[in-house]
Structure formats: C-alpha cells, structure tokens
Amino acid sequence: SEVLEIEKEKIGVNSNFFEIGGHSLNIIKLNKLINDHFKCKISIANMFMLPTISTLADFIIKGDQSIKEIANNIDEALIEANENLSLLDMLNN
Asked: Is the pTM of this model over 0.85?
C-alpha cells in the first residue's frame, strides 16, 4: 500500500500488483522494501512472475522452488492451449 499509495484494505493476498496500479518503477521500490525487510534476495525479474502477496510469500518461504512450480504451470497451460488451438484448427478445416 505504501508503494502504490492506496489503502491496505484494497489489497488482498491474491491481488495482482499490476492490476491494482503497479508498474515497473513501483516494482523496483517494492523489491528494495521486500529484500530489506525479509532479508532475502528476490530479483526484479522474479517479481514480475510473482505479482501477488501470496506468490511472493511462497517464494520467500520456498525459494527458487516456487518459481519452478510457476514455470511448470505456465508450460502446462501453454501446452494445453496449443493442443486446443490444434483441435480447433482441425475442426475448422
């Protein structure tokens, strides 16, 4: 709420940072605050993949493992989407 200058009540653990007003300059400020407060090292690149409090907390607790899980979920979703597109393409031809 400090970085986005909005009330805490408007932010939930599953609120997407970018959907509630965050942008690349804000994420740099947030990155510094999180790394200093939690004595951890989250890269800015990782923060783009962790846009919610929930995913950030998982990363802080589990470390790189949560990023691997997110990447696997994205890969699975892309594979499924590709299969669906192939099926639609076959149906249209």
From this structure: no
